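ok so I'm stuck.
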Amino acid sequence: MLCAFVGLSVSAAAQSPEPLFIEGQAPASRLTDPGRVTGAIVDRTIVGMRIDRLFDGPDGVAARILLNVGAQSWTAHLERMDLDTPGFRSWVGAIEGIPHSHVVFTERDGVVSGLINAMGATYQLRTHGPDTYLLERVDTSALSAELDPLHSPDITVPGPSSGPARPAADEIPTIDVLMLYTPKAREQSGGIAQIEALIARIMSDTNTAFVRSGVVARVRLTAVAEFRLNEAPDMAADLESLRLSQSIRAGRDLVGADLVHLLTSSPDQFACGFGYLFDSLDDTDFDAYSVADVACAAKYSSTHEMAHNMGSNHARDDGAFDGLFPYSYGFKDPVRGFRTVMAYDCVDVVCGRILNFSNPLVTHNGAPTGTPIQDNARSITNAAFTVANFRQPAASPSVRLDAPSGLRAEVSGFNVTLTWSAVVHASSYLLQVGTEYGRSDLFNASVGNTTVATGLVYPGTYYWRVQAQNIAGAGPLSAESQFAVAATCPIPDAPRNLQFSVSAGVVSVTWSAPASGSLPTTYIVEAGSASGLSDLLNTATAANFISATSVRPGTYFVRVRAQSACGTSSASNEQLITVP
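replied:
not stuck anymore, here's the structure
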């Protein structure tokens, strides 16, 4: 009921499962992926993957797959196919013989975000390059906990709600979510295409938790956009920045997002998540904002934080006391070693997190996953109609953006000009250029409302793509294109327009980059006691300016040279600087 099954056929369950991974592509020692490696990553390796065996086998969608991961060999069976997020498809299943395990692979155009939760061993997977995938084992117990939720600052904290708002009997509430990410989260995830796949997987994970727990509701992705935020050491500051952003509030209203969730990547991974707690059904304009660190996706922290926005709190054992209803609490069982989505880890033993909300009517290894006063599934169901009506879409379908097309690169020496066709309703464009397929290590930023970008580029082959953006979010990425810069290596031209100023013993010198030649990596600033000499100063800087304080009175002859791997340029125009 919660996911699309139209047009799918499933291969026979009795058939021997085919292996999904092709191992031995590259040892972990050769990995050059730039993403942040936290202490929670136990090991990393590159594997091949037969996506066709998941989705496009001779008999349709695979009913069972074989997962050969290290020394482990697991068979996973299909629970459901998820096509809810447009453009993406998710194979969702469980490992046979491991109750409440969870396996998901979300894919679009060959870009995959995957997770294997084998209850004691957790692996995450993402695309590394053409036909190669990065498989990481994650020690989720080494990840930080989510923080206790905050009450919205705009309302008076009430007592628990006495009863839910009820939808019509045949109506399933759909909660629309605006998903945001910071530049650091995007880089940590592997680029825009990869973080969008992760976001689609998070939505699928949340709906899987709803299905497994008996929640009568669904979440739906309404828009995705980058939020230009430099993460603070305190996640509370990031949450406050999100809540107070006028552009995000306007975007939320425009796309009718009931919830707003931000993925970050903090330098010290202080906490896995933080959000506001929905605590009164009377608050129909709730600040439904939450934040999660992208490194914590392997432990369902985003689903956890969004559930705070729906009124659910941690377990009673965790000290939680102010959920939306008297039963809005998570559950943990230290004897059987598990906890539900909203509960913290057990104190003396490791309790693996299962992708279930607490519910006394659902069992794990023969034991209930909740109690009458620890029933997040019932709480979310009873809050869902109100949550799903926090916002109504104000945008017409014309706000939706297409992928840019007509990508073209013109190369003249080291000068590269990139152009693409304009997209209707776009207000800016994000340009990504990288040294490998899917990477954006050379350039990854907005170029404004233009369809032309130029720059100097070193010799090599480069991959690039463009994304249209507006206040409602971002459209899909364009198709990947590439260009090559010939391996000639001309020396840079001399720097231009050397100028200076003198004030109270402070000398400031500026210049412009060379007009042609190879791209400078440094500039050599020379100062001498006579024309052409450098007996007083000879120093390098990566900037196109330099300042010196407490300069002694005298006369100085100053010039600048540009330097690259190809060599050092001739001198710029020389300036005679007199310091009184």
